[in-house]
Amino acid sequence: MIAVKYPLIVILVFLWIGFVCAISFMEAWLKFKAPGVTIPVGLGIGKLVFGALNKTEWVFAVAIGLHLAIDSAPLWIKSNLFFALSFFILLLQTIWLLPALDNRAKLLIQELPAPSSNLHFYFVAAEVIKVISLSAFGISLFKQIHP
């Protein structure tokens, strides 16, 4: 039999993973394949969508963090470190990566030259690590019970 210690957290974690996968790994590049979507239009859409995703991720992160805090779950427990890593990546994306990518997108939308950048690679790497970390955290919340 399998038990879940924090069912609400499990739901929030896997919803968070679903949002990131749907937006970062599907919508982000698919929109550019649609007929008539130019680079400036696609970047404008991307700015809106990733801004909304970031706010949604913060709702998930804060809800999970509050639930863990209310339950007095120590953050240094191995499984909770996976959540802490995801939280740190989200923070890094919010204060550095997304603003930097937005500034670059603004230049490209205005059809101004933008210096080459590895920011997209960093962002994708951060998303992959975040999804892996959230998956490990979510899976860790399932416990095998032996009768």
Structure description:
With 147 residues, the chain is mainly α. The chain has one domain. The protein has 4 helices and 2 strands; from the N terminus they run βααααβ. The protein has helices spanning 7-30, 39-70, 78-109, 119-140; strands spanning 2-4, 142-144. A two-stranded antiparallel sheet has the order 1-2. α1 runs antiparallel to α2 (39-70), α1 packs antiparallel against α4 and α3 (78-109) packs antiparallel against α4. The longest helix is centred in the middle third of the chain and has 32 residues, at 39-70.
Write the layout of secondary structure elements.
Layout: E1 2-4, H1 7-30, H2 39-70, H3 78-109, H4 119-140, E2 142-144
Antiparallel strand pairs: 1-2
Helix pairs in contact: 1-2, 1-4, 2-3, 3-4
